[in-house]
Design a protein that fits this description.
By secondary structure, the protein is α+β, with helices and mostly antiparallel strands. The protein is built from 11 helices and 20 strands. GO terms for molecular function: serine-type endopeptidase activity.
C-alpha cells in the first residue's frame, strides 16, 4: 500500500496509510475483506513456519531459521522458518477452503515470440511452492500456510507491452484479463470464518454498472510497499488500508493511453485518489480484494502515480457467482481429485436486482456455452451478460 505526497501550506509532506497505524480490530470490523484476504508468499524462499507444536517443544521464537545440521534433515520440507514481510509475493481472496482468487501476473511469466504481446504461461506450482496464509493484522502473527497445488490462469491473460527483442517490459505494463486461481494442496480454514462473497450473476452486473456510472468509494488493503514509488521498496509488517474513488467508464478510458482496444478488452475499472491524500496499492498488494460499498468489486492489478487499475469481478462470473459455484467445485474435483470442504453454497449478500431481469440475464448466460469449458480452463466468458446492459 503506497502513500503519495500531500501538498500542505506550500510544503510537501508524507502521510502514511491511517497515519502509519495498523488496522486495530479485524474481527469486529464491518469491512469483510479484512477477513477473507490471504497473504501469498514464496514458500521456497524460507517462508514455511515451524509448526507450533515444534516451536512449543523446543522454545523457538517466531523468526527462527534452521541453519545448522538439521536443515539437511528437513530439506524435503523446504527451508523451515516463519513468514517475514519481505517474503510477500501477492495477495488474494479465499473463495473456498481450497481455492484462492488472485491476479494472473502473480503466478505466470510472460512469454514473447513473434509479437510484442506477452502471453501468460503459468508457473510450475511444484517448483515455486507459493504458500497461502489467512488474514491477520501483523505478519509475525500469520498462521501456518498451505502450499499451492496448481495455478489456473485466464486464457486471455497477457501483457501488451513486452519488447520482443529484449523480453523486458516497456515503460508501462498493459495487463489484460489479469485473473487467476490457486488450487491449494489442503483445505484452509479462515481464522475469522469468512470467505469471499458469493453473488448472483445479476448482482455482479449491477456492481459493475454502478462503478462505471458513479464515483464509488472503495477500500484497498494490503501488506505491500507503503512508501512513495521513488523511495526504497519496503513491504509492510502490518496490514494497511486506504480509500480511493472510482472513475467512470469514459474517464477510465482516457487514462488508458497505451491500450489498443479499450472498448473490446476492458475488464477493469480505474480508481483515483480521494481528496488531497493519495492512497495507492503497492508491489505485493496485487491480487488483493478491492471492495466498493463493501462489495467485492475488483482485484488489484497495476497502477501508476495517477491511477490504479482494478480487475472487475463482474468478469469472473464462473468464480464469483452462486449459479456456477457447484459446477466449479465439481470440475476442480474432476481435475485434481480433491473434494472441497465447503459444499453448502449459498448467496452471501442480499440480492438487489429485479427477478424478471435476473431471469433474462441467466437465460443469456446459459447461451454462452459454459458446458464447453474444458478440464484445463475453469473460466467462462459471459460478456453477453454485461454487453446486454452496457450496450
Amino acid at each position: 500500500m503506497v502513500t503519495m505526497p500531500v501538498e500542505a501550506a506550500g510544503a510537501t509532506r508524507m502521510k502514511r496509510v491511517i497515519n502509519g497505524s495498523p488496522y486495530l480490530d479485524i474481527e469486529k470490523s464491518d469491512y469483510l475483506s479484512l477477513r477473507y484476504f490471504v497473504w501469498i508468499s514464496n514458500g521456497h524462499n524460507c517462508d514455511v513456519p515451524v509448526p507450533d507444536v515444534i516451536k512449543d517443544q523446543i522454545n523457538l521464537n517466531k523468526d527462527y531459521e534452521w541453519n545448522f545440521g538439521l536443515d539437511v534433515f528437513f530439506y524435503w520440507w523446504g527451508s523451515v522458518c516463519a513468514p517475514r514481510y519481505n517474503h510477500l509475493r501477492c495477495t488474494g481472496s479465499l473463495l473456498t477452503p481450497r481455492l484462492v482468487q488472485t491476479a494472473c501476473h502473480c503466478v505466470v511469466h510472460f512469454y514473447v515470440h513473434q509479437s510484442t504481446t506477452g502471453r501468460a504461461v503459468a508457473l510450475n506450482a511444484a517448483e515455486e511452492k507459493f504458500s497461502v496464509h489467512t488474514a491477520t493484522r501483523f505478519v509475525e502473527n500469520l498462521p501456518e500456510g498451505v502450499y499451492s497445488k496448481d495455478f489456473v490462469v485466464h486464457p486471455k491473460c497477457n501483457n501488451d507491452n513486452i519488447d520482443k527483442f529484449t523480453k523486458q517490459q516497456g515503460a508501462f505494463s498493459n495487463l489484460k484479463y489479469d485473473y487467476a486461481l490457486m488450487i491449494l494442496e489442503h483445505p484452509v480454514t479462515p481464522i475469522h470464518g469468512v470467505f469471499a462473497p458469493l453473488y448472483r450473476v445479476a448482482d455482479l452486473a449491477k456492481i459493475w454498472t454502478g462503478i462505471m456510472s458513479k464515483r464509488k468509494m472503495c477500500l484497498n488493503i494490503g501488506f505491500g510497499n507503503f512508501r512513495k514509488l521513488n523511495e526504497v521498496l519496503e513491504k509492510s509488517e502490518y496490514l494497511r488500508h486506504g480509500w480511493v474513488t472510482t472513475l467512470d467508464y469514459l474517464s477510465c478510458e482516457r487514462m488508458q493511453i497505451y491500450t489498443k482496444h479499450y472498448n473490446e478488452e476492458v475488464t477493469w475499472f480505474c480508481t483515483d485518489k480521494l481528496g488531497p491524500v493519495s492512497f495507492s496499492s503497492g508491489k505485493g498488494d496485487s491480487g488483493g480484494p478491492v471492495t466498493c460499498d463493501n462489495e467485492y468489486a475488483g482485484i488489484v492489478c497495476e497502477g501508476t502515480e495517477d491511477y490504479n487499475k482494478q480487475m472487475s469481478t463482474a468478469f469472473t462470473v464462473y468464480e464469483n457467482a452462486y449459479e456456477y459455484r457447484e459446477e466449479l467445485s465439481y470440475r476442480i474435483y474432476q481435475i485434481y481429485g480433491s473434494d472441497d470442504a465447503l459444499n453448502n453454497y449459498r448467496v452471501t449478500s442480499e440480492p438487489f436486482y429485479n427477478l424478471q431481469f435476473s431471469l433474462f440475464l441467466q437465460g443469456n448466460s446459459t447461451s454462452t456455452g459454459s458446458s464447453t469449458i474444458n478440464n484445463n480452463i475453469l473460466y467462462g466468458f459471459y460478456g453477453l451478460i454485461l454487453s446486454s446492459i452496457i450496450g
